[in-house]
Structures are given as C-alpha cells and as structure tokens.
Amino acid sequence: PGASSISGALRLTAALPTILGQFHRRRAHLPPLAPRPDLNHAGYLLYALLNREGTELETRALDVALILHADHELNASTFAARITASTLSDLYSAITSAIGTLKGPLHGGANEQVMKILDEIGTVDRVEAAVQAKLAKHERIMGFGHRVYKVEDPRATILREWSRQVGQAKGDLHYFDLLVRLQEVVHREKNLYPNVDLWSGSIYTLLGIPHDLFTPIFAVSRISGWTAHVLEEYEDLRLIRPKALYVGPTDLTYT
C-alpha cells in the first residue's frame, strides 16, 4: 500500500469517534467539543456521548468492547471491503462498502435487537415463557450461535464479566440477570451458545449510550480491522471474483 493509504487508514481510525460523537451532540442540541488529547480513544467517545468524562471503569469497559470488536477474520463487512479494494478502488470506497454491509441487521444490529428482546421480556421470571413463545413461532433469538464458533464466543465470555462489573458499579444488575437466565434457557432448548452480541448491548446501555448508536460504535471499533484488511488486499493485487455454481433447471425448451 502507498503512504497515502496508510495515512488515510490512520486518519479514519482516529476520526470516527469524533464524527460519531459530534453527530450525537448535534442531534442532542449540545455544543461541539474541542479535541481532548489527554483522553484515549474510548475516553473521548464517552466524553462526547455522555457530555462528561467517563469513570475509569466506564472507559475501560468501552475500551475492552472496542478492542474485542476490532477485527474478526472475513466477516461480511470485512469481505465487502476486501472485494472493493481488490478492484483497486480507493480506501474510502472500500470502507464505504464495509459500512453499507455492516448496516444490515443480521451483521451490525444484533446487539440492539438483543436489548429490544430484553425490554420486551421485562423480568427474569418471564424469560422461560418468552423463549418458548419465540421458538414456537420459529423466531430467531439474537445473540446466540456463530458461523465460526460452535462453543461460546470467547469475546462473549469477556463481555459478560464486564457487564457484571459495570452493573454492580451502577447498582443495576437487571440486564445482567436477564441475560444469564436467557443464556440458560436458550442453551437448554437449542444447544446454542452466546456470541459477542449478547452482552455488548447491556454494557452500552449501562453506559448511557442510545441504542441506535450501537452499530455506529461497531464501526468505530471495526475501522481498524477494515483498514488493515484493505491495506493487505492492496499488497496482493488480485481481483476477488467468487465463482457461482448454477443449480437451476437445464436443457429447457424455449418457444
């Protein structure tokens, strides 16, 4: 990759927390913020979103979540970015492809859907009936199962502990208790394990982050992985062209 691509990757990684923070502040009718070089990546994002500095625990919790979401091999958005880069399109177009792919609710919106389910359930004693009702209607319960992991997603294991710590610090284990029970019931009924989306939303909610910013925060984290993949793709200089296998009818007669 050229120097311009590398510097562009650094600029994007640095700029996204500021872009998201200022977007949120504008819609909340809050004044823009000056840069705070004394705050780290997660610290500045919390400062912008909460209109105050995060505590050490809050900042570390978000920092851990960002680290755990930074990259995860050839997921849908990363693959989209690499395909775009393989055409020798520019870095910004490749990242735009990734963001458009992340927007899909089956990729980037799962943790927001988990929180909606928890709010619908309400209390721990209603988890069993809620799961049974969804399974009876063949509805998917977000936050469980993974294309790569057939056991518990190791990222989920880490985030569960951070959800507990943040909940205890704030005196609010409501979502933690709901999720523990939900995990028990879903595993018993479907033998499915948690993925990273099961626990991340509870942490963001406890931090006071609006639900509609969960996917943009995913992008703030994954931008480091996306750009690294794009730069690597530029070194290969081979057009990615997946092959399709036709499985429809053959030898048809046309009139």
UniProtKB/TrEMBL annotation:
<dbReference type="InterPro" id="IPR036969">
    <property type="entry name" value="Citrate_synthase_sf"/>
</dbReference>
<dbReference type="GO" id="GO:0005975">
    <property type="term" value="P:carbohydrate metabolic process"/>
</dbReference>
<keyword id="KW-0808">Transferase</keyword>
<comment type="similarity">
    <text>Belongs to the citrate synthase family.</text>
</comment>
<dbReference type="Pfam" id="PF00285">
    <property type="entry name" value="Citrate_synt"/>
</dbReference>
<dbReference type="InterPro" id="IPR019810">
    <property type="entry name" value="Citrate_synthase_AS"/>
</dbReference>
<dbReference type="InterPro" id="IPR016142">
    <property type="entry name" value="Citrate_synth-like_lrg_a-sub"/>
</dbReference>
<dbReference type="GO" id="GO:0006099">
    <property type="term" value="P:tricarboxylic acid cycle"/>
</dbReference>
<dbReference type="InterPro" id="IPR002020">
    <property type="entry name" value="Citrate_synthase"/>
</dbReference>
<protein>
    <submittedName>
        <fullName>2-methylcitrate synthase/citrate synthase II</fullName>
    </submittedName>
</protein>
<dbReference type="GO" id="GO:0046912">
    <property type="term" value="F:acyltransferase activity, acyl groups converted into alkyl on transfer"/>
</dbReference>
<dbReference type="GO" id="GO:0005829">
    <property type="term" value="C:cytosol"/>
</dbReference>
